[in-house]
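Review box. Two proteins, two foldings.
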Amino acid sequence: METRVEVALNLDGTGLAEVKTGVSFLNHLLGASSKHGLIDLKIVAESRGEPDPHHLVEDTAITLGQAISSALGEKRGIRRFGSALVPMDEAIAEVALDLSGRGYLAFDADLSSMAAKDMNAEMIRHFLHSLAVNARFTLHVPRLVGRDYHHMAEALFKAIGLALREAVELDPRLGDQVPSQKGVIE
């Protein structure tokens, strides 16, 4: 095993975050998502041996995704769908997600020429893919525009937090029902 990752989360929290992944920009992004999604989140991740930001980012996404999937259980009574449009200065991010039981990422943004000090744009895409697959939700990012990579990435993670917050909210009209015609979300 190249990394060790521990995650504790409360999807019905107040937005408290303690994130220590060894990748400072990822810490910042996950903290923003937690704050705006009202998700209490504690993550401790470390490389075993040589520091390896790629595997820290990927394994953090996998473990966080698995924790989200586990916390959702049978998904009884939740809204299931969430979306958000978030501006940050010159940047704007739009996301839509479905807690469908099917992991999928549709990412239409071009961040190829942008990077932060310890997390490049391709790692953002890879993180989101690993998160969606392991949380077993469908995530669409149809719009992500701006000039400043930091602003674009932060708006994106805030939007994901807000969309997840909306999707996990209990819908009093659903009661104990699973939000699916099949009666189950696998």
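Next protein.
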Amino acid sequence: MSDVSVDAVEEHVSQVCLHRPPNNFFDTALLGAVADAYEELAETTGCRAIVLRSEGKHFCAGLDFATNKEQDIAALYRNALRIFAAPLPVVAAVQGGAIGGGLGLALSADFRIATPGSRFSANFSRLGFHHGFGLTVTLPRAVGEQRAADLLYSGRRVEGREARALGLCDELVDDDDLIPAATAYARTLAASGPLAVRSIRATLRQGLVERLRLAMDHECTEQERLRHSSDFAEGLAASAARREPRFTGT
């Protein structure tokens, strides 16, 4: 099975699914496949909205730094920008964790449906690292500047009910209802005039891709600088050992 599948369009909605369980770590190729799917669906007659979902325990745990230490971050972010630039509205079905870059991927969607057990975390600071995937722009946009600062500085995890209160997700449902609820939400969007929805979405997101491009350029620079630090090595080691990191500021 491909790492990304695209379902047939039903009632004007298609599902794009990640297939790298249990954590659905991404890399440049996976994000490129998601962007390809979005762009192709935008040209597909009758498709008006997309459900982004994942196979396995977690929605997405971002980039696996332990096995992708040499990942070209700039190339990865070029595909991330293509995801943001695609014209159809997207509803993300977030089960388990949306962690690090996985939170960034969830926030690329217009709406997020989650469960009480879902977990959201911009955990970069707990790795001794700078955040990425455009969270500089998208996290304050979702929760406000002050709450975004709290989440980015602390790297703490937010579970479903708090996430709903903060604005990280738009609806909470039981685990078994997650995909049906996300699909129903997407079909509600698809029931409106398709030309109008695309036009309204473009207006609401006017300038967003350019802001993200500038933010990702800065994020990439900081990530390249910090990926060689002792703190980042310690953060990865602590995460692998499931212990508290002992940062030295070097």
